[in-house]
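User: I want to check something. If I give you two sequences, will you return the structure for each one separately, not as a complex?

Assistant: Yes, each is folded on its own. Here is the first sequence with its structure:
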Amino acid sequence: MLQEINHKIKEGGLRTANNFLYSFLENEDVLVKELKQFDGLQSEIYLSNREGELEQLKFASIFSDLISMYTVSPIKSKHHMTMFEAESPYGYDRQITIPASLTNEIRPNYNLLPGYSYHTSSDLKKTIKYCEPLLDNTKAILRPVRTLWVDKKHIDGKKQGIIYYAEGNTDTRHWLLKDTFDKDKMTIENYLKPTKIEQLMELTIPYFRDIKLDKLVKVLQEEQDTISPFRKELKNLILNFDELQNNLTELREDVLRPQIDTINRKFTHTKNIHSISVASSVALFSLSLIKVFVPAINVSELINSIISGTSLSGFVMSELKYQTEQNTLRDNPYFLLWRLKKL
């Protein structure tokens, strides 16, 4: 279901910003239900075409299973906000829950106008293009932002208002305002606090900064079973990190690098041994085939020499041993980081 909804939203965004919004709204109730039942780590990112955004997306794709990519922009000309008339299917009343920290800013007599904010058509198309590997594999969903316009105009006679953003995964008729908002920060639900996420991203970003997004997604698909141990290991590492005692560069050099070097050394050794073994087995197998051209040998003798000898069976056993040793390397929780570094 998520894949189908994601495709509809993406196709809407490839047409126009308006199509994007209504493709989302038509599926929002089902989407929220699906996300509440989603079995995996979810993250949130606010896309505003800023520097470092792509690295943040790469990080989120490694450390979460689904990214909600909200479209916001600090530039008014690159930002749409839609509110609805009463006769609109989406003009229904919404219960707005205001956190205690905002009650002094949002008074009961203020006019509250709910709506949705999102990118312009051109910016949406650019975003979809560079996020396409994530969207096509349902690793990410592009979403407008639930937005509350707090209108003070009728209170003091001045034309003014303040925008607040609401949580995206509550019921569509019950919005919960965010008491803090920073478009540069990201969250990963049930994983780490934002400050620890920033540290973890700084620690690991050198390993995937230069990897293209499509290659990264491909590796994550191939190494699906190594992701959970990797996340757990890195989470424990960063939770125990004391920046008063160490810095992230030291952590990278003292912990990550030795682990990756160990895997690399074992991989190289196994690969070299495998090459020699396979070369020998192929040579023996080839020699056994030469017997075909010797008139004095019969067919059954040839078959026996191939099957029971050190020729084909040696080749097969060599390959099985190699694959087993490769799988053993993948048991190391840092294997995924090593794989990314090899790209």
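And separately, the second sequence with its own structure:
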Amino acid sequence: MAVGERATLAGGDSVLMFSVGGGNEVAVNLRTSAGCHVIEEVRSIGRPE
């Protein structure tokens, strides 16, 4: 993740965004432990069949 962050900053972007599937606590905890912060959160539910 650190390599991706450095490449993003070197490319001129100021924010590196990740998409984490709903309820994936392992992924959320990994990003939190790496110092990432939530800047946007979107939740949805599937359409009823």
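Because they were folded independently, the notes below concern the second chain alone. The chain has a mean pLDDT of 80. The longest helix spans residues 2-10.
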